[in-house]
Specification:
This protein has two domains: 75 residues; 47 residues, Arc Repressor Mutant, subunit A (Orthogonal Bundle), CATH 1.10.10. Helix content is 79%, strand content 0%. It has seven helices and no strands. The chain is extended. The mean pLDDT is 88.
Length: 168
């Protein structure tokens, strides 16, 4: 038996042994069978893509499956929150100004990338950047509010802008 055949058999065994349990766990977490099925599938895909064979997962493969699935659930909830906030904002627009469904999806994807980028920033950098971008404060005002030197405020904003450019 080749190494590829062995790996395929191991993944098949992992899937058949643990898929039902993982699907049930996700269904209880999400309260939605369709989302649970999608995330269970995505969990196994992530494990397969990681190239870790089931034999390398140790005696408790469910621990790794739970860890991966939990991250996917958090991403799922974050996406729902971003989508809901955007759609709530759209609800206040007059019908002729509302974007098309295709444009909505493009905007939601962009908002998700921005949300992920902001989440990846250190807390102080994110705070300084949002004070500048959302509240429109100047460098000096941010420095006063955060009790931080202006040069440090400038560095935080520069770091955040570089992160924005990286996801653009």
């Amino acid at each position: 038996m080749s190494a590829a055949d062995s790996a395929t058999q191991q993944v098949h065994a992992l899937y058949t042994t643990h898929h039902g349990w993982l699907y049930g766990w996700l269904r209880r977490k999400l309260g939605n069978a369709a989302d649970a099925a999608d995330l269970a599938h995505d969990t196994f895909v992530r494990v397969m893509v990681s190239r870790r064979l089931p034999a390398q997962l140790g005696e408790e493969p469910r621990a790794l499956l739970t860890h991966v699935a939990r991250g996917l659930v958090i991403d799922h909830w974050r996406r729902q929150d971003v989508e809901r906030a955007y759609l709530d904002a759209l609800a206040h627009l007059p019908e002729p100004e509302a974007p098309s469904p295709e444009t909505r999806l493009i905007i939601i994807e962009a908002l998700l990338r921005i949300d992920a980028m902001l989440a990846s920033l250190p807390a102080r950098t994110r705070q300084v950047f949002l004070l500048a971008q959302l509240d429109g404060l100047t460098l000096h005002q941010i420095a006063e509010r955060t009790n931080t030197p202006v040069i440090t405020v400038r560095r935080h904003i520069h770091k955040a802008l570089m992160a924005c450019m990286a996801v653009a």
